[in-house]
Specification:
The protein is an all-alpha fold. The chain has one domain (4-21, 61-200). Helices cover 70% and strands 0% of the residues. It is built from seven helices and no strands.
């Protein structure tokens, strides 16, 4: 069973997918616009415009597409960070409810700010008793080491974007990060489910 944090995260990823989809639409629109203003026989010109609008955009990207891709990376980072914070609170509630006097005091004293990088994720969940939560998370064609490297490169790219440094982001790169980090969130959610259940003896994400 998925946590509420994962359910909400997957819904929010629709916003990132909209930016990915907008990439092709913008390229098609730009090509159609260029054809419309290029002159020539009117009917042939209109036919070419329509063809650009309904055809795959092909290689090359205008500056506006770069901005869309960069925005997609920043938005994906924000949603991933929100997922880990929500999941941390959900796991803390299940693990510590009835065992500490003030559960809110525990969660509020934990630093949940910062990028969704390896160190910040580890620190958050270590604070409630799960110090090695990132260990062994892997799937086909993605080892744990490769996942950590991918997460590091994603956060480095995100930092370049939000701090105004030069960063080239293609649609393929954004799509790859979207796919990898979606898988990561799902695998992480499943591992934490098992970890919390081993401590509490109950399924942690059961809905009331």
């Amino acid at each position: 069973m998925a946590s509420q944090a994962l359910t909400d995260f997957l819904k929010r990823l629709d916003e990132v997918q909209q930016l990915v989809d907008a990439h092709g639409a913008l390229v098609r629109l730009k090509k159609a616009e260029a054809t419309l203003h290029s002159g020539g026989q009117q009917l042939q010109n209109v036919a070419a415009v329509v063809q650009h609008l309904v055809s795959p955009p092909g290689p090359g990207r205008p500056p506006e597409v770069q901005a869309l891709n960069s925005a997609g990376v920043a938005l994906l980072s924000a949603h991933l960070q929100g997922f880990f914070v929500d999941l941390f609170k959900e796991a803390a509630r299940t693990t510590l409810d009835g065992k500490v006097k003030n559960l809110d005091a525990v969660t509020e004293s934990t630093n949940t700010r910062g990028n969704p990088n390896e160190q910040n994720i580890t620190r958050m969940f270590k604070s409630i008793g799960y110090p090695n939560i990132l260990d062994d998370i892997a799937w086909k064609n993605m080892s744990n080491r490769s996942l950590r490297i991918k997460l590091r490169s994603f956060n480095e790219l995100r930092n370049k974007i939000v701090h105004g440094a030069d960063a080239s982001v293609t649609k393929a790169k954004l799509t790859n990060y979207l796919n990898v980090l979606t898988n990561f969130a799902q695998k992480f959610d499943g591992k934490l489910f098992r970890e919390v259940r081993s401590v509490t003896g109950a399924d942690p994400w059961q809905k009331e």
